[in-house]
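Dear colleagues,

As part of the handover before I leave the project, I'm documenting each prediction I ran so the next person doesn't have to rerun anything. This entry is a single chain, and its sequence is reproduced below.
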Amino acid sequence: MIIGKLTEKIPWLRSDDPLSIPNDLEVEGTELHFNDRNELDYLVFRVTEREGPREYQGYRAVRLLQLRYISLEARRDAGLLQKMRTVLRGLYGAQVDLVYLAAGVFKNPNVGIVQCYGVAAFSPKKDEAIQRSLRDLSALRAGLVGTYRQIRLEPLSTEVAQWLARALEQMPYAIVAVGHPDPRENARGGDSSMRDPLVSGSQGAQQYSIQQNELLFRGMSSLEEEFLLMLLTNHVRLEDITRMLAGMLEDTSVYASRQLGTRAASFGISLPAILTGGLAENASRSYGTNHSSGVTQGEAATDGVANSEGQAHTTGHASTRGWAHTVGISETDTIGSSSTVGTAVSQGTAHTEGTAVTDGTSHSDSSGVANSHTDSSSYGVNGGVGGSIAPAGVGLSANVGGNANWGSADGVVVSSGSSDSSMRSVTHSQADTVSQSTTQSQSNTTSQSHSTTQSEAWTTSGAETDSVADTTSTSTTQSHADTKSTARSETDGVGLGQSIGRGISAGMSVGVAPSFSLSNAYQWQDDPYILLTDIMRTQRKLLDIASREGAFYTDLYALATSEQGIQAMMGLIPEAFHGTEDVVAGVQTRALTDPEQAYIGLHARAFTPSTRIETIPEAMSGYADSTLLTMLQVAAYTAPGMFEQGSALTTQEETPAFAFYPDMPGNITLARQWSSETGLLTDTFLKLSPDRHFHTAFVGDTGFGKSIAAERLAYEATRFWHYRTIVLDFGQGWRKALNWPGVGPKGSEDSLGHVDIRQLYPGSPRPLRWNILQVPKRIEPGRYRSMVAELFANAGRMGARQLGFMRRALTELYFEAGVLTGDPKLQNGPLGHLQDEHEVELIRNERQSLGEDLNDLHPGTLLESLSPSELQVLAVNRSRKLDVSKWVDRLRTYKEKLERDQVSRTSLEGVLLRLEQFSEGHMAKQYGSSASGTGVEDLGLMGNPDNPWGVIVIEGGAEMDEYSKAALLSLLASILYSDAVTRRCEALGGKHFPPMQIFFEEANKVLTGVSGGAASDQGSGESGNPVSHLFQTMWRDGRKYNVFLHLMAQTVSELPSGILSSCANVFVFQTKDPKDRDLILPHLGRSEKGLVNTEYKRYLARIPRTYAIAKLGYSDDVFWLEPVLVRPMIIRSNEPSDLEITQELGAVSLERTASDILATNRSH
């Protein structure tokens, strides 16, 4: 009996009646469209839909995106469902119908779980349906990306799209899931406390798994049963939800009123009677007369006095500051001091007079005049003398300078004022008013100005002005008024009244009230109605939520290829989504008959909801296969599943936060910025301005894009800033510079060539013919001698003993050839004068270029009478006849003489092992004495001589051993740097030289040398980073001379720390070595201690190829100093062959010319 009543009152406990299958859908055509990348663009179905008497013909367009990445942090995010809820709320507001697919793809291809988010749009017109689906997909993508940080969604590949089409067409088994899922709002995969909520915590946490769709994915993956889970939503209007809520409230109140009641019975009797009566009569009459008369007279007198006083005090102060600062830095061997003191005194006076006259018409005038004059001047003279004494020679230098500052300022201020006022008042009354006003004012102004200017290496000026004004005013007002008034009034009144009345009343009361009562009461309750009321109130709560945020009619279909698969789905779906909290009917799966399976399969193929009607009174929905769900309940189905076996990557932590500068100043473009908010590469560029250009380090593992970023910087600075760019290419990766746009003769601004390529390796088409022992034009011979020895020793990581042998041999060769022209020993020897007419002609040409006297020059002229510049020209000429082979021969003689000193012989063997190759074969021709050799100090200066600029690539090549390349490239860089330092001083005299930048490929090898030979050869050079102090000086002081040094290195830990810290700008590519990462993090402004910023340290090991962390650290504003994740922009140009290089630039021969032969004869 009770069970029958309960079944009758609760609809879903009734026995199911067979449901009719309506003819509500016809699919007339299906189209799959793919984009240019062979990815699924959209699906289009031509359909006819019917619902009741209405019929809709048109097109349904579906677009899908598969989930490819969601960060590892989502596993620990307890707000995963709430985030999906916000996405659904946004889709509801945009009137977008969501499509969610979860597919198990285990055969052809074997992908695993594929999660897809999409939209479906219907329209009578095909084009309109396609366009609407595109707009809806944009809303979906924006919602997901905005909610889930760095989520990645991609179109379906061709293989997955074809599998989906086959599955929809061929999967024979289908079921439907209805009911309300229980959203489990907690973390999907552990928390920071490392506790398992299933075995600890509250009892509620242990009732259900913290995962939901992951249970379904894991179960079907273990069986490797292919399946397709499809969820279709259709948004319900708020008006309809509100109407449903109102009806639910009415029904709930009816059932709620039947839960409790009371039964009672009683009996009683009462008979009352009342009678009353009375008699009364009355009569009255009245008469009255009234007369009144009155006179009123008044008089008033009023006297008033008002006094007012006012005082104002005004103080004014004005301060003006101006400054100018000039910094000049030069690197010389000069010791000097300078001091400049200047004073300036200025005085000014201002006197202001004003008069104010006030008469009866209230008129006032005021005027003022202020004059000021200031003169300032300062003068200064400075001078300095310095000298240096080195083992190789003596150098002197002097400087003198002066400055003068003067200024004059005049100021005039004229002010005037005028005021007029009048007043008239007319009043119809008898009044007399007398007023009197007196005003007094006084103003005093004092001003003082003092200015002092002092300049030393900077100038400062200031001015102070103070003013004080005191104003006093007094006003007195008197008034008198007399008022008189008279009033008279008279009143007469007469009154007459008459009244007659009569009344009769009677009454009597009699009462009898016997009473008897008998009652029996008890309280009852109806538990089926109580249960039904609770259920309906739960429905009311869900409808109340839906009325505020919206809701969706939701269809959930499951398809499988086998009976085993569909049976597993029937158990896994309730296991994953069933619950008892805030649900009316838990999730249930319905087994379908064959006709029903065909019906559901047809709707699944067309992504169209079912319209079968199930007539159940008091149910939330009238659709048999749909359930009205709130946003959070839909989120339980559609939240991203944290399941790794599939197309979505879920185990990778998100990319750390990096800065994003949308308005970065600069006129050259280096890269595109990556947004850590959206996880997308943007079209916002990383730019650089000349004032932020500095030494730059490009570091990272090989093959990850260091050269791409360096090439971009070299190209942009060369083309747009007209820099002089030198590329020291350890291999052959930079020759594509020949085809850079806007640099060659066909595309440059002046139609001149600004690119050149030279090679170091023997047998190259364009060899760099360079006598490495020839003294450069702007480097003192003794200094160059030390430079060559030190850099050749550094390139082989040789010890101090080996360096000493090399330097000693070079000193002897230079002395014997008369190259050390400034050495007093040489000047007092047989080579201490001009040897022949050729040397005399050289000195004459030098003096002529300087505009000096050409007399007193002849063979035999003493060198001590020549100027330093003339001695330098002579040293350059005499050094041309030297050859590396002579250097090697001299070292061999040392070895022969040291027969008993085994340690020294071993050291010399190591030196000869490295140097002998320069005196053999093609290398002897290329780097030996030659009158037609290249002056390396002029490399990169191309185009118009008045505005030279360009890029030159020096290729080391693969045919040359690493020691030779390291030695030659390091020496070449040092020559270019030292030459640029001297050119900087020349530029102060008016000559134009462009800024220079040098790119070091394989900077580890060029700066620190390469290992070779026996360990005993290397001595102390192996300890730490054996870098020459020349390189440390170059990186420390280079920017002072407009020299910018850029290094490319794979192993940061092998770079000298002093050099790396001098690189204010850095591009960091993927770096996996722990020591390298510890050195990089401080450059990025992050901690390397392992307590904080550990996510940045881990990210360094997984930076994608061609991406880099860029920090432009040279700025006076801390705002611009944060690192940015970028993708350097590659220069699209072809890499030329040797034949194309020679065709474009011409070939270079190593054959001896007539001038070489003549030069050789003169030397002998």
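The two ends are 133 Å apart (CA to CA). The mean pLDDT is 80.

All the best with the project,
I.
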